[in-house]
Structure formats: structure tokens, C-alpha cells
## 1
Amino acid sequence: MIEQPVNNKNLLVHLLSAFPELQESYKVEFQEWSGDEPPGNYVIVGTIFTPRFEQDIATGRLSDFLRRSAAFFERICRSGDNEAVNVIWIRVFERLIFQPTGLKLLWPILGTETKKQSEMPLSAGRKLRGTLDILKTSPQRTCLPSEGRHQGNI
């Protein structure tokens, strides 16, 4: 049986199929939703999937949920649907940039296409993390160095 590719239009159907334990949370979110349109992919992935995903990451062990997550990410990345991929990167992987132990735990079970898709965003994230670390340890300035008037800490 050939699996239907995951795309932006069917992402939620595939998500709930791959993670039936999230269906009750989805129903509650859908019932409580007050917007004019039903909650979209970003909302559902961010409020239903991501908390459970992060809960499992926090255990430090590769659970069945994390293994199924890695397989699901690979299906999305192989689909070629940029919007579906974007949902996962924004709602899941962007958060992992600042959780290197979680990313280290997950990395060995991620598929080839998921890893390939992640190289640029994760590289940018590492650069961002490095920049943030530098900013945290640098004295704050009241003017730009190019202005020639460094006034030290505020």
C-alpha cells in the first residue's frame, strides 16, 4: 500500500492518524476555538503535538512517540510540500535549536531527508545561539561602536 504524501491540506488528517492519542486533545481544542475559521496547522501542531513532543524529549529517552514523530517528520520532508515542512520547522524544530540535548537525543533517529532539510535552519540557529551568548556576556552599549563614543554598561 502506497502512503499518500503529506501536504499542507492534509497535514492534520495525517497527524491525527499517526498519533491517535492526540485526537481527544484535538477535539477539545477544536471545541474551544473562538476564531472565525477552524484552527489551522500551525495552531494544532503548536498546541496539540508540540507539548507532548517536548514532554517526551524532556525524559531523555527515545519513546515510541518520538520514534513515530521522527518517521512522521521524514514523511513530511519527503513530500516536498514546503508549507507542511514549514509548519513542523516553526512549531517543533525551532524550539529544539535552544534545546541541544533534545536535538542530540532525536538526531540519530531522524531520517535522511529530515536531516538534509534541517541543516540550514539548525546552522542558523547555532549561529543565533552563539550571537545570543555573546550578547549576554558583552557589556551593553549606549551607542554603536562606529559612532566612536562607547559609554560602557547602562
## 2
Amino acid sequence: MLSIRLKAKAARMNVIQQLQLFSETVDELRNTNVMKKGLSSDMTIKSSKVGENWDVRFVTPKWPEEDDLRSFLLTFRMFISEKEPVFLNRIFNLSIKTLTDDRLKSFMIDAKEKWKKAEGEAVLSLKYQGKLLTLDQIASLWISGKYFHKDPDKRQILQDLDYHSEMIFKHQFLDFLVIATNYIFYADRIVKHAIKEGLIKE
């Protein structure tokens, strides 16, 4: 329902109002329990030899609780969905087009390029059935296969993973959230400053 209201509201907005909507949604993201507690993808792998075999364990003391993560994703996914008025790439493009300060514009251009590169790369090279997965594809498995939509193909991929693979894939998913959130907050700082200083052309 929130997404539908945002789309309806955005359709009647001018440039300043669209950017303000983005900032308001970012503030909602900042106020989630995940952000208040600290979003982290930290993971430690510990191994010990048991007889002839190795026992591998994953220690994830700072990973978000599932209820908190699901609540966080309700707002976060709007920034990575092309259909949403606060879609991050839409905000990059709108800012680049309307910023009157060349320095701020260059910051946005640089951030957009780096974000595009980050989406297509994974910190770890992860494959499924021989296909190398990008960071945004790994994130999509969790968002569309587990938390929302229940896409059957993506859900099946997650179900096919053994424990160790699942933990590594989830680590990459959380890493995507950390990286994306950093770019969202960075863009928001520029947007807020530009609006306050009157550096946006209508």
C-alpha cells in the first residue's frame, strides 16, 4: 500500500517534491531497527578437525534478526525497483539533470557509475549451475525468492543450497544491502543539501 501511495503522489510532483519524497523515504529507512542496531554483513568462518573430517562453522554475531530484516526490506526494496518513484538510479538521473552546482553534479555522476559497477560485481565469485551470479542477482534471490513475491525459480535455487552455500550466499546478500544503503545515504546527503541551498532547477 505504501508503494502505491508513493507512485500516485509522485505522478503529481515537480522535481523538488520528487527529491523530497526520496529523502523522506530515506529517513524512513534510517529509522528501521536494522539501521538503528547497525547493518552488518560481517561473518567469520571457523573450522576444526574432527577425526578425519573438518567441521566448518559460520559465526554471524551482527546479522540482523529476521523480523527486523523483513521490515527493513519493505522500505529498502523501493530504492532498487525500477517501478518506484524513489528508485535510486532514477534519483541519480534526476539529480544530474537538475542540479545547478557542477561540483555536486559530478559527485552524483561518479556515484551513479560506481553504483552501477557495484551491482554487477560480487565480492566472492558465486556460481549456480555453472553460471556466475552478480551481486544484484544474489540479492534478488533473497528479496524475490524468500522475503517477497515467492518467485518459484528463485525460491528453488535457495532450497537447492546446502548449509554452507546458503550462509555464503546470504553473506553476499547482506553485503549488497550494506553497499546499496551507503549509496542511498550518500545521494540523500547531496539531495538534502541541494534543496536547502536552492541548487535544483525546476
## 3
Amino acid sequence: MKKNENGFSLTEVTVVIGLLLLFSALSIPMLSSSFTAWQGRSDAQNISTMLQSAKFRAISKATRYQVVFSVANNTWTVQRNEPRGSNTYVDEGSTMSLSSGLYKAVELKASSSGAPTGFPTATSAQVRFNSRGIPIDTNGQILPNLAVYLAGGDTTYAVTVSTIGKVQFWSTKNGSTWVVSH
């Protein structure tokens, strides 16, 4: 380059563009796993919120509510007992789906290799609340602790409902140490 010319040579521009492409290619897998983890956490929080909402609706409307999970379709639906006192439920709102993800989808899991202390390793097909916000079975009997599991990336999430109706959101990366999330 001559002393009184301004700008960059073609070689310099090519090297800079090559380095930018290399750094971009190296960062995509990290961003992908971070995004999948974020989606998994978000979906677990959505399920937790939906269970809390169903519990509060059951209490405020003095009727049974349930959230039904479809592991095969990665969906869940809130349903209201109608007519009251029967064993018939009608959908309240639309069916909700988990995030599909850019590279790896977040999925409901039928079971988990480990569980938060005191909870089952199998995902509950439904969580039904009586008019006092307590989880019950189809006969109205109080159920022991329930759980719903989902996975996003290398993290497994659990949304649990205790016998007294307390809804909690958990996560684990190794399957044995569960941490309550907020």
C-alpha cells in the first residue's frame, strides 16, 4: 500500500471476515444449549403457573379443576368439572404446547431417573384439585405427592404438587441433586 492511500487491502479484509466467521461458528453451539435451557426453564415455569392457576380457580369457583398432560404430544390442558359434582370435565382455554426449540425440543418426560425427595419418578397424567386446592384422584380421595417432568438440553425439570397442594418448580443437571427454582 502506498503511503498516501487510505483503506485496507483485500487480504486484510479477508482475514478479518474469516476470523469473524470462525468466532461465530464456535459460539453457535453455546448459544443453542443456552437457548434450549432457557426454553426448558420457561416451559417448567409455565406448567407451574398453570397448576397454581388451576388450584386457585378450583378454590375461587368452589369446583374441581384438573390439568391433563399428554407426554406424547408435549401438551397440557386445563379442565373444569362440569356439571359440578360429576366426573365430567370440559376444557377451559386452549391446549398449551411446550417450546419446540431451535435445535433441540423441550419434551415432557414419562419419567425421570431421579426425583425430588418424597416425589415419584413417574410423570402424573393429570393433576386434579378439589374445591380446597388439594390434589385428589377420580374418587375425590387425597393423593400423595405428584410430579411432572420435562427436559430441555442437559437439564431435567420437575414441577411438583405436594399432598397439601403446594406447587414447586425444581431442576437438576445430574439427576440426583434437585434444586428448588424460583
## 4
Amino acid sequence: MPRVQFTYEQVKTKGRAPCARYQHAACYFQTDSRRLLIVHGGRNDDIYNEMKDCALNDLHLLELGMLEWQRVVIFGSLCEQRWAHQMSANGT
């Protein structure tokens, strides 16, 4: 069986990155002109302990072509705070 080797490196991004988190949902989405990593929700223990049983419900995009973070501002009804959830992209 062939052996596969991976290497990892930390990349420098522009913009304001989301706070540290775990048990968030993330997915990849591509259009004709953009490649995006979408990150939603999750849990940050510092925020959780301070707010008493609080999950995150923010939404962030990482534009992979420029390595630039963007926070999505949502108007209207917000989805509930959540962690340990799943997300998928539908469409192109």
C-alpha cells in the first residue's frame, strides 16, 4: 500500500479572524469567482463560562483566494446559538 504524507503550515490571513472555537460547523463553497470557507457557531470556553451556557451563532467567511476573513452581518431572524452541529453547501 502506498504511503501518503501530509504537511501543514499556518497561513497568515487578512481581516479580523473569528475567535477561537471548537465544535463549530464549517464547509467549502465555490462560485465562478470565489472560493470560500464558511464557519458558523461553535463554543469558546471563555465566552461560555462568562455568559453561562452560551454557544456562538456568528458566521464568518474566509475568502481562500485572498486569505481574507469577513464577518457576515445578519439582518432579521438569527438562527439559534449552537455547537456540535453540521453544515453543508447546497448549489454552486
